[in-house]
Every structure is written in structure tokens, then in C-alpha cells.
Amino acid sequence: MIATILNQVLAFVALVLMQAMVLDHLDLANGWVVPYLYVFFLIALPFNTPPWATLLLGFALGMAMDFFTSTPGMHASACTLMAFVRLLMLRLLAPRDGYDPLKRPIVAHMGMAWYITFASALILAHHLWLFFVEVYRFDNFPSTFLRAVMSAAATLLLCLLAQALTTRATRLQ
Amino acid sequence: MRDLFRFFFRQRNNLLFLALMALSMYLLINGNMHQRAQAISSSNAVIGQLYSVRNEVAEYAGLREVNRRLAAALAAERNLRYSLPLRADSAPPDTDSTGLQTYRFITAHVINGTVHKERNYITLGSGSLAGIRPDMGVIGMDGLVGIVREVSPHFALVTSVLGNEFRTSVRLKRTGHFGLLTWDTGDPAAASLTDVANHVPVSPGDTVVTGGNDGIFPPDIMVGTVTNVDDDPSSNFHGIKVHLSEDLSRAAYVHVVSDLLKAERDTLQAKVAQP
Fold first, then answer.
1. Is B13 within 8 Å of A80 when comparing Cβ atoms?
2. B109-155 tens-digit pLDDT
3. How many structural domains are present in chain A?
4. CB neighbours of B131 closer than 8 A, spacing ≥ 6?
5. Helical (H) or strand (E) element with B13
6. From B14, B180, B208, B241, which residue has the greatest number of CB atoms within 10 Å?
7. Residue B169: pLDDT above 60?
8. CATH fold group of domain B64-273
9. Contact B42 A55 (CB under 8 A)
10. Which of A27, A69, A77 is facing B249, going by the closest CB pair?
11. Contact B242/B209 with Cβ under 8 angstroms?
12. Share of chain B above pLDDT 70, in %
């Protein structure tokens, strides 16, 4: 329990720093693709995280990003929404006899199909909200939409890559 | 009453979601519209330090280019100085007609910045202790960079030219007509020039400079060159695209412009504004 919490705190700090120091400064496809890997923290929370904790952690994660990007509320609202969508998706995708408490929401434990459904719903909710709040208006809807979807694909790819690279995560704990 | 409590208890997660959402929307609207969320910004001390460290590491990669550009800027400055006595028609650009210095340039180091978001911000490694105040203009070695939005003792946060909230008055150098520079292209190297009437002759290649009538930027600072004039027959104004001369993804050192006569001018104008 303590180890899990410590691991989560480390993941939180590492992902936020990684996002603010490295990924935010990438200039991919002339600004059309901005991966937000830091949301991986919310996707990978344990299954037995209480709903209230998921929501509060989402808000805290967003606020941490907002401190770096000077955009009060922007990431916070996107991550709160994402935490809410996570609760919905967990209920929607639940196995008949509930989640195995030994498993975590990662590819190695849940399978590729389950993971992609779960992660892409969360990432899309986050990115669509974030990109539309960022422009603050709905004219040139198609271009903002396309930016959000392309970035979401990049984020999903990075989430898969991050798991492929960390062999330790594949072991059942 | 007990039903009410039971309702609240059953809905506690949805209510928590709504409360957190409301809080972040409040921050979003307050922070961006009134530009007042001082605590939540990259000009605060901790985040500023982190970005300084990051910049120290990342800086080495671009040092050669920075050196070349600084040398070029110095050379241009020297050329200007030595050519001045030959140009009897114009005073140096940073003095007024009486020869009094009207602008002071504060050198600042860019420690963080983005160019690919819808609104981009730049953090400078100097703040109020160096004399930087909000609403001062920021220019790079080759052109316009942005306007100071917030300052802390050691850092300053700059609203970049690359943002849909940025607007400044600029002038077509050849014809002298004023227009408004906005960034709505999404391309870090291009901006739009609006409010230039159809009768003004504009052609690609024309130079765009600052207007100098807003008390933020000095006049005749290079902004960019016209790349494309696209006229909509139903509009009375040109649709002009401008290539920005400053490469904001590479700006390493910038000058913050302190208008020394701003206080005097504002006092004078405030007298008229009062009833």
C-alpha cells in the first residue's frame, strides 16, 4: 500500500517534469502534434483507486501542469473531465466478475484491445477539451479538431511505447 | 432531510466532479480574462528556477547560432552608429527631437518559451529588480517578440506575438500606412496584417515596422515582410500575410523596452480623460 502510493507520487512528479521540460518543447509537424504524455498517470492509476481520489488526483495533476504553462484552470479542467470519463469507462468496460485486484490498467494485464479502447476514450476526452479551451472559440473547428485527434494518437502511441520500454511493469505484482 | 443527505452521499462523486470543474473554470476565466492569477504562472520563483536549470542544459545546443546572431546584431548596431552623421535628416531612433533619450533597452535572457500553442508565452530570466514592468515591449535581435504580462523579482512572463490575444499597431514602411498585427495563422513564422484599406498599394516584399504610437514599442523596429496580399472583393481591407523577421523558436536574448517618457505622457493624457 505504502509502496504503491510512493510509486504513484514518483510517477506523478516524473511525468509532469517530463512533460514540462521535454515534451512541451517538441515542435512536431509544425505544431500540429503536441503529445501530452503526462495523462498516462491518470490512465495507469490502480483499479481500486476510490472515485473521489481519482477526481482529486486529476485536478491536482492538471494544476501541476498549469503551474508550468501559466494557464490557470486549462489543464486542471481537462484532467478533471478525464478523471470523470475514467470512472465512466471503468464501469462500462468492467469484466463480469469485477476487476482482478492484482491487475493494473496496462496492456500486459488487460490486453491490447481493452487498453486501446480505455486509453483512447480518456485521451480523446482530455485532448478535445484542452485544445478547444486553448483556442477559446469554435471558428476553424475542423483544424482544432484535427489537431486534437492527431495529438491524441501521438499521446496513445507514447503511452504504449512507455509500457513497452518498462519491462518491470509487465510482471504481475 | 435524511433523504437529502442520502442523495448527497449517493451523488458525492458527481458533486465532487462538478465542484472541481467549477473551480477550474473559475480559474480559467479569471486567470485569462483579468490576467490576475499571479501565483499560477511560470514567472513564480519555483517554476522559474526549474526552467532556468532546464535552459542551462538546453542552451548549449544553440550556442553557436546565438553567437552568430549576437555578432550580426552588434555589427548592425555599429553600422548604424557610424552612418548616423551622414544622415542629417534623422535623429537616432531612441532619442526625441531635443536629443533626449526616450527609450532604454534592458537585455534579458529567454529561459523558456513555446511557439506551437494557440497562445504562446515566454519566460525571461530578469524581472522587476532589473527594471522590467508589465506592459513593456520586448524585441529580439531581428524583430518583435511580445509584451511583458507579469513580473516577479527575478522573472518576467511575456505574451508572445504568437497568440490570438496579441495585437499591436504596425506601419508599412514604404507607404506609411498603419495597420494592426494579429496572429491567426497557427504558423510560428507568419502573422496577419489587418485594417489596411484597399486603396493602399501593398505588394509582397514590403517591409513592416512598428508604429511607435502605442507607448510600448519604439517606432521603426523591424516586424517582418509582406509575403502575400489576398484581396476579398467583398471587404474594404486588404488581407495581408506577413513573414515575421524574428524567429521566436530561437530567440535567446531579447531587449525589454522601457519608455522613459511613458509616465509623463500618461499623466498628460489622464488630465484630459478626467471629467
1. no
2. 888 888 888 788 899 988 888 889 888 999 888 888 999 988 988 89
3. 1
4. B104, B106, B258
5. helix B12-33
6. B208
7. yes
8. Thrombin, subunit H (2.40.10)
9. no
10. A27
11. no
12. 84
The pTM score is 0.64
Give A84's contacts in chain B (Cβ within 8 Å): 17
**Contact yes or no for A80 and B21 at CB 8 A:** yes
B164 touches chain A (CB under 8 A): yes
The position carrying cell 519608455 is B259
**CB-CB neighbors (< 8 A) of A74 in chain B:** 28
State the smallest CA–CA distance between residue B24 and chain A in angstroms.
4
| B80 at A interface, C-beta within 8 A | no
Touching B: A residues 35-54, CB under 8 Å? 51-52
Note down the domain range covering A69. Answer: 2-172
Which residues touch B43 (CB under 8 Å, ≥6 apart)? A70, B123, B127, B150, B151, B152, B155, B156, B157
Kindly identify which residue of chain A lies nearest to residue B159, measuring between CA atoms: A70
Read off the CATH number of the domain in which A162 is found.
1.10.1760
- What pLDDT does residue B243 have? 92
* 10-residue mean pLDDT series, chain A (173 residues): 83 90 76 87 90 93 88 90 94 85 85 92 94 73 86 93 72 48
Q: What is the pLDDT confidence band of residue B211, given thresholds at 50, 70 and 90?
A: confident
For B192, the enclosing helix (H) or strand (E) is strand B190-194
CB–CB of A136 and B164 under 8 A?
yes
> Which residues in chain A are contacts of B188 at CB distance < 8 A?
30-31
Whether the complex's predicted ipTM is more than 0.85 is answered with no
**Which chain A residue's Cα is nearest to B47?**
A68
- What are the E-state strand segments in B52-155? 103-113, 119-124, 137-139, 144-151
Residue B83: is its pLDDT beyond 80? no
State whether residue B190 sits within 8 Å of chain A by CB.
no
